[in-house]
Amino acid sequence: MNRFRRLHRRPSAVALATAALALAAAAAGIAPGPRLAAAEEVRDVLGAAHAGGLYNFTPEDYLDEGGDQLLVFGTRVIKVWLTNDVATLYPFHSDWTPPAANVVELAQKPYFQTLFAKPFTTYLLVVKPVTDSPQFLAGMTAADVTAESDQMHDLASYLLTTYAGTGKTFVLQNWEGDHLLRTGLTAQQEPPAISVQGMIDWWNARQDGVARARAEVGERGVRVAHAAEVNQLADAMAGRVTATNDVLPHTHADLYSYSSWDIDFDPAVLTQALDYLRSKAPPSAMYGQRNIYLGEFGAAKDQVPDGALRREVIDELSEAALGWGVRYVVYWQVYDNESYVTVDPLKQRPTAGELRGFWLIRPDGFRAGWWGDMQRSLVSAQWQVAFRAASGQYLGVPRGGGGSVRASAPSVGPWETLNAVTPAGDPLRSGARVYLQTHGGRFLQLGAGHDLEVGPRQAPTAAHPPALFVLRRVQGNGTVANGDAVTLETAAGLPLVVDAASGEVLAGRAGGSASVFRLQRFD
């Protein structure tokens, strides 16, 4: 069976998920989502995984070949496996002998040293349990806790020392925690209490090991963090025993990751799932409430909903994640790792028709259609902002992400926050041309009646870009800072005006006066 075979299960009804989310958010007192904490280049957020691919193109070792392809793509975020089965995951033009005795020796292998020297800003590293299996299922002994904590401590210490001053971030994570928690169970069985407590102890031991290394070595121009990854949020929203519902609230990880193969490839449900995860994941000392990332997303040929175009599905999922404000969003993956037929990649190159389609680059060397769509996003920069009208009300869109924009909210929540995206990565200055993206990933546009509204679900492409708006400081030129008075106009010069009676935002006549907003920046 393929090392990364997917077990795709459809989620419960969207209505059930939405109801569960609302109850959880209300109980937790959740207000705004954890969107972008400061200006970021998308290439430091949107990345891809590289592991277990079934073909290659160059004489370079396979680990570094995938890294180089992603640098050509334009991202500076990569997810790889730092595990003892690397010879299987990265086989081409590679000699992994002698086997590493531990994870630090593995990180010291020349292929990883070369990868870590490349100009990536973030490495998401999957690290297995000490025992190479979920030893926590029958509970964690004191010796188990010590061994797991020490493994993470030693790896974190090595990375903090070796890569000091590089500005890099290394995130040490597990892979798909719900699959670990449910090892040996049927689909109908629930994990027992001893396994749930064991997983709490396991994740906390890993976090404590990383934190201990940071306290001892210090972060001198390099960061090492620990993440706990879950993968069954649909079940969690339906009220089942899951890592999200029953483990995460009792942990203190730096970051929480979601491998998103269970939400029916629907960007609206992805937004709901991330909101639900946010309601369960404790904030961290290192990242605060913005400690959620999308550890995997994508869609195979046989996973796209009927009547949908795969390119649009993948584009929309990535935009939904960026609009929500995940810290990282990781596409699965550079080269496809799953086939419909038995393939020995060292003896034969599979054809595109034999593979499921988890790729940025096909086995015939052609790039996936969404390569260019994502690449255009990588050159942009984005800021989390909110606009307060003269009435004191904030601009917002209806919950769920569709309809007209109105100045009607007394406070800032997820649907009152927007990403101000500069398409060429320009700074947020007076006169900047920006796209305005909502919490659900859709972009704002002008409707037929010149009202400001949420655009269609279809993700923007080069042929159909989102609407551009011009942001201006009332005080004149310069950087748009938190608290500045600003105006908005369309790219054609039509000022945006708030209707005093309805709060609706409309495009006025050319040469008219625009409404003044007080800008809030979440830096």
Q: Largest beta sheet: what is the strand line-up?
A: 2-3-4-5-6-7-8-9
The level of helicity is 25-40%
Radius of gyration, CA atoms, in whole angstroms: 23 Å
**Overall shape:** globular
Distance between the termini: 46 Å
Report the sheet with the most strands, covering strand number, pairing sense and barrel closure.
Answer: 8 strands, parallel, barrel
Mean pLDDT across every amino acid position: 91
Compute the number of strand runs. 21
Query: Uncertain segments of ≥5 residues (pLDDT<50)?
Result: 5-38
Approximately what portion of the residues adopt beta-strand conformation? 15-25%
What is the number of helical segments per DSSP (H or I, 4+ residues)? 13
Going by helix content, strand content and strand pairing, the class is alpha/beta
